[in-house]
Amino acid sequence: MKFRLTTLFLSLIILLAAQTSVLSQQIYVTEELDRFGSVEFVQSEVIIKFRDGVLSSDKSAVKNALNAELKEDIPFIGAELWSIREYGTMNDVLTTWEDHPDIEYIEPNFAVRIPDYEVEEVFEDEASLMDGVIPDDPQFNQQWALQNTQQQGGVAGADISAPQAWEFTTGSDDIIIAIIDSGINYNHPDLAGNMWTDEDGFFGRNYVAGQASHNPMDDDGHGSHVAGSVGAVGNNGVGITGVMWNVRLMALRAVTSSSGNLAHIISAIGYAVENGAQISNNSYGFETSNPNPPSALFNAISNARDAGHLFVTAAGNSAANNDNRHFFPANIDLDNVITVGNSSP
Fold this sequence. Notes:
alpha/beta; six-stranded parallel beta sheet; 6 helices; 17 strands
């Protein structure tokens, strides 16, 4: 048995109303908003950014008028996460305050979702291997996305031609890829050798547990699966191989088993950029009725772009044409964004 994501977060670089639910002690609600349509967000939380030069006293006046308190700073985009008490609906908040002259933007703390993925049985096959560099990892012959030999009755060669690419490179320890997800099992024998650590020996951050938490252990398996697809140690005689045999994987836990929120995602993007990750993998998203992305998310990815950071993200696993819907961050129109779709064997 193994996990398979119906979306393949693979390229050689990757290389990459209200309905309510309670996750990680946060309440997620769905509300119809004038600007975004029917969307899900953390109840009573907003991301707010003031214009340059606004006095602290004027910021406090807005906070008092909203009956709000600061939950956390989001310094990567110069914004703050506020919790609002007893102000009415989120739509009331936005329509009243989004045109205030001191405010650059005020938006809900959007919920983000990990696309559905499946657990399915994979059968080995006697099909011969094609040309190229072949690792000795015992489960490589099950990894049809890297080399399709009709292991699952599909089309031979419907893959990313990884063995042919490995003739040129199998990766580098100089490349740091941040996995912004449910964390990484950094003790896994096929991942441990490729884990990044900071100068204090920490593998990354856990924003679900709080900005000061240094333990990004995966509690779900999704992030570890993605990390394995990107950079499981290759040619080590163990398990599978990643697209990059050699790489450093930075673990940033920003979602739980299936959900997270935009404030945590943005903080994780900021950490990745500020700590030298050239690439991040972002296997999450959300949909709105507005073709324009939330300003906070756009600012974060734009700031990452300015730092030379490549942002790889999932198209959404919905078998839908993203030209006909507004799914973010996949649909953000910046030249550092690579949106990866899915295929079957």
